[in-house]
Amino acid sequence: NAGVTQTPKFQVLKTGQSMTLQCAQDMNHEYMSWYRQDPGMGLRLIHYSVGAGITDQGEVPNGYNVSRSTTEDFPLRLLSAAPSQTSVYFCASRLSPSAQPQHFGDGTRLSIL
Amino acid sequence: GENVGLHLPTLSVQEGDNSIINCAYSNSASDYFIWYKQESGKGPQFIIDIRSNMDKRQGQRVTVLLNKTVKHLSLQIAATQPGDSAVYFCAENVDSSYKLIFGSGTRLLVRP
Questions:
Q1: How many helices and strands in chain B, by DSSP H and E?
Q2: Nearest CA in chain A to B10
Q3: Which of A47, A58, B13, B61 could cross-link with A66 by S-S, CB 3.0 to 4.6 Å?
């Protein structure tokens, strides 16, 4: 039972490059979300999805895009990486928007030079 | 991740003692609260939750207390063990929203 799987675990990018952070869950969860975590701060919500084909913005959506073409996958795209996007990114899922608790992946550590 | 907790408040306790970690939440409309534990290099792990119609909930060695009057949440860990060393986050879910809002976290250090 893999739960929430994130790839890659580590990535270094140059300013202006684009990349996609992958997230997959095998629990048939409707709700998925992306957070970023910066030193000394809690997790901040970037984007979320309440089901396949539906996405919405969180607290800090600028510079990121998401799509949800399947229930299992919820990729996060950085269109043009900036040093301010250096962070640890966590994907999470839960059974439905109103269900708890939320399960997290182990994160992607991203550095933008 | 590795950089979590650089500027976090820290609670240091002796192994075997009880730990109390506090959290102030912001929204009086929040109807659900969760405590997460995060170990270095790992994602947050669910510990215990409580709904706003309760003021106390107990799990195995953990208790969550909710005081809605002052918008305060606490996590009590009984007989703290070295494996409890981690960063602990509270999170609140606002009614009619699908969003979890996280606090900034507290690092718990357990002295042998």
A1: 0, 10
A2: A40
A3: A47
* Contact assignment for B105 to A39 by CB distance below 8 Å: no
pLDDT in tens, B86-98: 999 999 987 666 7
- Beta-carbon separation of A40 and B2 below 8 A: no
Q: What was the pLDDT predicted at A98? A: 73
Report how far Cα A29 is from the mean position of its chain's Cα atoms.
Answer: 15
- CB distance B105–A42 less than 8 Å? yes
CA distances B94 to A84, B36, B109, Å, are 28, 17, 31
The predicted structure's pLDDT at residue A108? 97
Nearest to A88 by CA among B39, B86, B41, B9: B41
Minimum CA–CA partner of B51 in chain A: A100
pLDDT at B96: 60
- What is the per-residue pLDDT for B8? 79
Phi, psi of A94 (to 5 degrees): -150, 165
CA Rg value for chain A: 13
Q: What would the pLDDT profile of A59-84 be if each residue is shown by its tens digit? A: 899 999 999 999 999 999 999 999 99
Tell me, what amino acid is at B25? Y
Place of tokens 């408040």: B9
Q: Whats the size of chain A, residue-wise?
A: 113
The whole-angstrom distance between B1's CA and the closest CA on chain A is 6
